[in-house]
Design brief:
Blueprint (H helix, E strand, L loop, with lengths): L23 H31 L7 H40 L15
Helix pairs in contact: 1-2
Length: 116
C-alpha cells in the first residue's frame, strides 16, 4: 500500500468549470466608471492647480521655498496623472466594449511553437 496523500479539496468558488469570459456589459460598466473617475479627477486637478496659482508659496528661506515648490509640483502632477490614467483606462475599455460587439472578434488561443 502506498502512502499517497488524499486529493486536496477544490478552492473556494472553483467548480471545476472553465472560467467565464467577460461580456460587453462588464466592459461598458468599467468604461463608464473609469470615465466618471477621470471627470472627478479632472475637477480635483483643476482646483488644485487653481489653488496653487492663487496662493503661491512664499518663504524667506531658499531651501523652504525650494521644498514647497517641489511639493506643489508633485501634488499637481499626481492629480493630473490620475486624471489621464483614468481617461486612458476608460478609452481602452470603451474600445474593448466596441470590439466585443463585433461578431467573430474573439481571439483564437495561440498555438505553441513547434520544436524542431
Amino acid at each position: 500500500m502506498t502512502d499517497t496523500p488524499p486529493p486536496s479539496p477544490p478552492a473556494i468558488g472553483d467548480s471545476g468549470a472553465p472560467p467565464r469570459r467577460k461580456g460587453p456589459l462588464s466592459f461598458l460598466s468599467g468604461a463608464l466608471t473609469a470615465a466618471l473617475l477621470a471627470w472627478l479627477s479632472l475637477g480635483l486637478s483643476r482646483r488644485v492647480a487653481l489653488h496653487y496659482a492663487l496662493h503661491p508659496p512664499h518663504y524667506s528661506s531658499s531651501i523652504a521655498q525650494s521644498i514647497a515648490t517641489a511639493l506643489k509640483t508633485l501634488i499637481v502632477g499626481m492629480a493630473f496623472l490620475a486624471t489621464f490614467s483614468f481617461a486612458f483606462i476608460a478609452l481602452g475599455l470603451a474600445l474593448v466594449f466596441l470590439r466585443s460587439l463585433v461578431p467573430g472578434s474573439t481571439p483564437e488561443p495561440a498555438n505553441e511553437p513547434e520544436s524542431t
